[in-house]
Amino acid sequence: MTRGMNLFGSDPSEVERGLDEWVAGFERKAARYQELQHRVEEVRLSATSSNGVATVTVDANGNLVDIRFSDRIVQTTPDELRAQVLGALKRAKTQIAARVREVADDTLGPEARDSADRITGYYEQKFGAPDEPPPPPPRDDEDYGGSIYR
């Protein structure tokens, strides 16, 4: 007859110690995942529109949590403003997965790489990943048709 595998030894105190270590390991993992959840909830990412009229900030769920407008708003049509805000919002959201990856790697460590991959994959599927860096906003001297030194 085959006996079951003994993971902790045959001595009752050794079994108790093994179970305590096993439970403590689960508790440590649970604490790291709770910390990860809290850190992801604190994630904020911003992006500025290509013409510099709007800067948006999103949380890790992609919710808009702030929007700021520059003085250029007075020279922007409503349709252009809409396009600029939506473009900045998309760029901010595409940064989420990379930032969550940083937080997950930092919080969970290399031993939980598979978990970090799955978590990041969820955010990449939901928000995509950045294709390329957005163009920098125009310089202030371009507000009035460019520099006088051209």
From TrEMBL:
Residues 107-150 are annotated as: Disordered. It comes from the Bacteria. It holds the Pfam family YbaB_DNA_bd. SUPFAM superfamilies: YbaB-like. This is YbaB/EbfC DNA-binding family protein.
